[in-house]
Amino acid sequence: MFGTFVRLYFGLVSDFVLHISDLHTHGAQNPRTKTQVHRVPMNRSNSVILFNSVILVAFLTVFARPLWSVPPSSEKAGTKPPETLSLRGRVVWMNDALARRHGVKTVPEAAQRLLALETADGELHPLVEDIRGRAFRRDQRLRGQDLQLLVRRHAGSPMIQIIRVFALQQDRKFELDYWCDICAIAMFELKACDCCQGPIELRRVERRVLRVESQK
Known about the structure:
This protein is of the alpha+beta class. The chain is built from 6 helices and 8 strands. Strand 4 and strand 5 form a beta hairpin.
């Protein structure tokens, strides 16, 4: 149906252009054959055809445009936008958590293969191992401490993608990243500095915690 409509639309446009061309070339001299073409007067029939063609082409251009417009990638694929969540827990190795909580034994090759956030109620959220996720593999100081993670979860996937990392200590909250004192730039995993190639340090920046007191 779409292909038929497109062919009809462009056929009408082509006929309209040819019709206009014929009306304006009658009475002109053909530059190749040097012959004179007699002008055909614009009678009522030609005017009606021209007017109807203009109206039809304009209508199809305005109202049929959505048929061939390309929808956004998320709408075209039928997927929902990612969900942003704030989760608390500790980052652990998935195989260790499965063995400790459920008695599930994995093969030796699965050891330290997948990282997960383990919440206080026992939920396991596997981590997407991008740069921020890989930081927990490279630096064992990040694992095993109480954290609050701002994460993104895509529809249809149990994996969570880390956006920001906060360490929790009693009623205090610290944002974690890595810092180079020489270049004064922040990074998201333990490695050599992207600029000077020197060592970097784990940085803890305290953030204010908003407290909401219940009113009796």
